């Protein structure tokens, strides 16, 4: 990855930090008591997550299949960094809210940045330009804020503008948002994530905004049908 692009991503993630936590499977086991004609009966109740039945993947050509597999590899590679961002952004904001002076807040933020730079520098250097752009999109998916706005909030609007301008030279936009209903690549990324969650390849974390996967699938099926009619 180009040195300037690397600096941009490290800067962004440095203020968001690393704090992945193991999540418990959202399965609860409750016991309820029912009264039936003066008798007490224990009823065992199990609440399970919604189960999604995935349709087999179909591609129009070998090139489409190849592109999907490449996108799959890159998405799986950078997703953990987006999870990292969402996890620690909340912790960072919570901690900063507890500090009573700008000096303490600045000192704490610098300490987090120094730790992250030392911990993840080598890993982020290995990202390609396309992986960097996917990471920017996934950071928006998990935090609800574009990387540009994160930089702007934590530093200054001018620095955010400069970083975005520099990134654009390498076909990377820090303003890029995750829009699976509008951008087909984003839809494919969401499909890859959902299948990876199901297979246990990636640890599931809810996005910052609601994404109805089944509705998303139906939407793109309709789009494809409309495209076929016009061809």
Mean pLDDT: 78
User: Tally of extended strands?
Assistant: 2
Largest sheet: 2 strands, antiparallel
Q: Assign an overall shape.
A: elongated
Top keywords for this entry?
231 residues, mainly alpha, two-stranded antiparallel ribbon, 2 strands, 8% strand, elongated
Give the helix/strand layout.
Elements: H1 3-14, E1 28-36, E2 39-47, H2 62-98, H3 102-125, H4 129-143, H5 147-154, H6 157-168, H7 184-199, H8 213-230
Antiparallel strand pairs: 1-2
Helix pairs in contact: 1-3, 2-4, 2-7, 5-6, 7-8
Description:
The protein is built from 8 helices and 2 strands; from the N terminus they run H-E-E-H-H-H-H-H-H-H. The chain is mainly α. Strand 1 (28-36) and strand 2 (39-47) form a beta hairpin. Helix 2 (62-98) crosses helix 4, helix 2 crosses helix 7 (184-199) and helix 5 runs antiparallel to helix 6. The longest helix has 37 residues, at 62-98. The chain is elongated and about 60 Å long. The relative contact order is 0.16.
